[in-house]
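User: I've been going back and forth on whether these two constructs are worth ordering. Before I decide, could you fold them both?

Assistant: Sure. I'll take them in the order you sent them. The first construct and its structure tokens:
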Amino acid sequence: MVLAAGDVTFDHSVKYAGGNNDRDPILTRIGGTVPTATVSGYWLEDVNLDGVVKYAGSSNDRDRVLNSIGGSVPTAMRVATLP
């Protein structure tokens, strides 16, 4: 209930850019060389939970990370709210 969508690194924040961001692990999971590659399975990097880790193209997981922080400033950060 309190995990912010896109917190791939489980550090209680969502970051699109900068050190320890949540975007790079998505690219790493698909192999890191071909951004259009995909990996099937419900991995931590499967932000939209569709069973496919996807860095580029339609329904990719990278865009969900950007949307989670507001979608307009890639250097913004969203910190998870805890009760």
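The second construct, handled the same way:
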Amino acid sequence: MTIDTHRGRPPPRTPQAWRPSNQRAALPAVLGTGLATLACAWPTSAQAHVKWFSNVVNCGATPLSPLAVLGSPLFVMLVLGALLTLCIVFMVERHILPRFETLHQVHADWKQRFSRNAAWLLRIGVCVYFVSLFTQDGQGRIVLTPELKTAGSWVGPVQLLIAALVLWKRTVPLAVLGMLSLYAHGVWAAGWFHMLDYVYFLGAAAFLWLDATQGVAMHYIAFTLLRVSAGFSFMWVSIEKWLYPQWTYDILDHELAMVTMGLDKSFFVMSAGMVEFCLALLLVLGRLSSQVASLVLLALMVAAIPLVGVIDAIGHAPLMVVLFIFSASQNRIGYRAEAARRGADLGHVLTFALAVPGCMGLYTLMHALAYPGTGELPTWHTLLALLMSLPLLWRLWHTTPKLFPVRRRPWRELVTLSPQAA
């Protein structure tokens, strides 16, 4: 292969290099991946946020024990089905990717331009979002999310300032400070445990800050923080469906009774949480499946708007913009070159198996720290489940591209170097 001496990289392949036979061979695999994900996603025909519409939400109430949920035969069957689905998705994905190498080369320049302009798209989405919040002046002004309201007159001007300042790159840091001030007000008003549902706001703020102040130098770190925060938010609300099922039952009994399609409520809610957890894992650790998972989550949110109204559209607007960005962007988490050659797919599936009880243990521990007056204390099985969440953190660290791409010499090489050579 010839090298372009002016740019130091291989010249891009022309569209003629794409072979139609490869395209036909890859099409069934693409459909297989999409259908496998969509088949798992059908129970979540409505993706409305529970805390915005349920009348029985009380974060201070004691959640179900993770051991009681894990011991349910229905939950065990759902976990086994999710493991099988993820194995198929990752296996199909591994066979698809080599066939799309040429297609990736053809569209590489467009994808790079889209990644560079992703911050601009998110700034537009944030602007529209805060203008929409400003216009929703009913019984109390919405602060950051539909259930957080205040009678304070200072919120409206702050929202308009954020919407204006976020449009110019030089003033984005001031807009980010405004976003953080509203998030801090939500923590003060509703508690930090309640605001863990909305960690993606912190990820979006970090993304915009790094893009405005550091530019391309912190590009990968900004995308990593945004992706991990969005994935965490989806995982967190999926766990709430398991540990606080009565919140979703209240919505299904009133506003969204039609979406169960005659299914048992407990099965519907538990499977919906499992689907959401699986899609969140694919969003963080998948490659092509990450883009498919982003599209599925985005489609579910859009489909929920006619059922629950404009409030759901406004509340999910920033997250929908983030999912659109992910659907058109490659995911660099989970498949660093060395890790991809050493059974990364099996590692991701095992990580999921440990992350399900691990994240439930983490949720229970965070609740005990946030509400110590409830008399709830972490037990041995909660702490054991918490330890099982550590492989997920290790997996993220091990497979994420190096945050600081500086060449480091092995320690043995450093030991053998002479002072003159050093």
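Notes on the second construct follow. Residues 110-190 form one domain. The chain has a mean pLDDT of 75.
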